[in-house]
Amino acid sequence: MHESIFQKPERLHLTVAVFSLFSDAEKLEAISALNECKAKILDPILAESGQLHIKVAGLECMNNNYQKVNVLYANAKICTEKNEDILQHLTNSIAKHFYEKGFVRQYQENVKIHITLMNTKYRKTESRKRKWKDKRKPFDARIIMEKYKDYHFGECALKEIHLSWIAKVDDNGFYKPLSVITM
């Protein structure tokens, strides 16, 4: 497997929604929408449940054919069984909020909660003249799935939600945030 298809460790994240911001005014509106999420969605959830801890365990791929995988990801969920659905509710609510504000073009009822570990779109080729579709060569993940399907990666506290600018990185190698809300 080519090392370029692995996500850089410093960029591991959970994606809630993806959208484009074309002007400074749109960026300010998105920052305002994120702040509204804190007041309307996050604060009430945290008041009821307390600090949220995420467990990262198990591997899956975006398709069901382990022989031809383009995206391999780790599963993420809230640690306690009592609050397991909170992460899904939280991500769905944030995505819906950004959809209702006009940032997300296509509504999805359930956000696929995952941490991308490998993605063939990251693949670097010998020639930059190749077309993008030439980079997308699936890999065989059967051995990985056999060995690590139920692997426990660890747990962490959910501390922040970022509105990230994925075209730029900050000093620590993570996507440059336009705004960050803390939990």
Task: Describe it.
By secondary structure, the protein is an alpha+beta fold. It has a single domain, classed as Cyclic Phosphodiesterase, Chain: A (Alpha-Beta Complex). Helix content is 28%, strand content 26%. The protein is built from four helices and six strands; from the N terminus they run αββαβααβββ. It has helices at residues 24-49, 86-100, 132-135, 142-148, and strands spanning 53-61, 71-78, 114-119, 152-157, 160-169, 175-182. The strands form two sheets. The chain has a four-stranded antiparallel sheet, covered by helices on one side. Strands 5-6 form a two-stranded antiparallel sheet. A hairpin with a 5-residue loop joins strand 5 (160-169) and strand 6 (175-182). It is globular and about 45 Å long. Pfam families: AKAP7_NLS.
Brief account:
Keywords: Ligase. By secondary structure, this protein is α+β, with helices and mostly antiparallel strands.
